[in-house]
Amino acid sequence: MSTEIFGNIYDIQKFSVHDGPGIRTDIFTKGCPLRCLWCHSPESQTFGPDVAYMDIRCIGMKYGAMCMKACDRGAISEGPLKPTLKGDDEITQPIIDRSKCDTCLKCVEACPSTALYNTLRRVTVEDCMKAIRQDRKYYEKSGGGVTISGGEPMSQFDFTLALAKQCREEGFHVALDTTGFAPTERYMEILPYVNLFLYDLKHMDSKRSEKLVGVPNELILKNAEEIVKAGGRLQVRYPIIPKLNDSKENIKATAEFCVKIKDGIDVVQLLPYHRLGAMKYVRLGKKYPMSQSVEAPPAEFMQQTLEYFLSLGLPAQIS
């Protein structure tokens, strides 16, 4: 049965209003072939488990240092003192030597406060459906549904296909949030079960794309065209990153490509860059790839870009 197919996810988010129409339940899958410099969900990049540390949950190592004792590889040691939230005490935080960590997860199992946690959740399609069915009334009232996101959900194709099928069988609107970087035949296979593709366009120059996100863009652009030809609907997403993809040339090329596939586009979302995911890198012991000098694009610039897209007859908005 399709409901017995397993997938790796990192979160199920309810009452989302940013990933498709209406109120939605987002299923976030793990694993992505891209490495966007501005990625705000680094836990989504890997297919397997990650040990993350959320210091705000930590009760300190004076209560037995169970995480350190559980680690066979000596990857955890005592770190600095830090005031508690109440400010009436100090706790000794752990330091994780990531070069020694083999992701055995023994420290996670030993942590009494879930300050150390595994980003991976192994689930079946039915596990996801149980969460989805709870909010049917909200979808019906708002015109919402289910969004399968990531990572890149097409990288776990069997799971994503089975989940999309099950959702459609039960009458739920399905949106698929994708980078477009997967075999074309897979998009054709899943298309009958997807009402809307949330589709990223990150850079129109292939060499520049490879430098910024780790892959060229020919397949991405081809898949967008093929989805539209086959009758699929797109919600195009253009993240605008200052100094990286906000040149006049790239804005013009992006808009012209959208005009080319205009008949299949419901909306073009212009997404201003933000740094909201930076703390997630800290939790994973990774360095945030973006320079501190890169800030959100000015509101005036975003408005000018929006007016340009609208002048071409595109249904654009700033999101």
Write the SSE topology.
Blueprint: E1 6-16, E2 24-29, E3 51-53, H1 66-70, E4 76-83, E5 90-96, H2 106-110, E6 116-118, E7 121-124, H3 125-133, H4 136-142, E8 145-149, H5 157-169, E9 173-178, H6 184-190, E10 196-200, H7 206-213, H8 218-229, E11 234-240, H9 248-260, E12 265-272, H10 278-283, H11 299-311, E13 316-318
Parallel strand pairs: 2-8, 8-9, 9-10, 10-11, 11-12, 12-13
Antiparallel strand pairs: 1-2, 1-7, 3-6, 4-5
Helix pairs in contact: 3-5
Structure description:
The structure is a single chain. By secondary structure, the protein is an alpha/beta fold. The protein has helices at residues 66-70, 106-110, 125-133, 136-142, 157-169, 184-190, 206-213, 218-229, 248-260, 278-283, 299-311, and strands at 6-16, 24-29, 51-53, 76-83, 90-96, 116-118, 121-124, 145-149, 173-178, 196-200, 234-240, 265-272, 316-318. Helix 6 links the parallel strand 9 and strand 10. The model has no long low-confidence stretch (mean pLDDT 95).
In short:
Helix content is 31%, strand content 24%. It has 11 helices and 13 strands.
Which CATH architecture of the largest domain? Answer: Alpha-Beta Barrel
Strand content: 15-25%
Largest sheet: 9 strands, mixed
Number of structural domains: 2
Structural class: alpha/beta
Number of helices: 11
Q: Which range best describes the helical content: under 10%, 10-25%, 25-40%, 40-55%, 55-70% or over 70%?
A: 25-40%
- Mean of residue pLDDT values: 95
- What's the SSE pattern? EEEHEEHEEHHEHEHEHHEHEHHE
What is the molecular shape?
globular
Provide the spatial order of strands within the biggest beta sheet: 7-1-2-8-9-10-11-12-13
The CATH class assignment of the largest domain is Alpha Beta
Tally of strands: 13
Contiguous low-pLDDT stretches (5 residues minimum) are none
- What is the CATH homologous superfamily assignment of the largest domain? Aldolase class I
Evaluate the radius of gyration: 21 Å
Q: Distance N terminus to C terminus?
A: 39 Å
Oligomeric state of the chains in view = single chain
CATH topology group of the largest domain: TIM Barrel
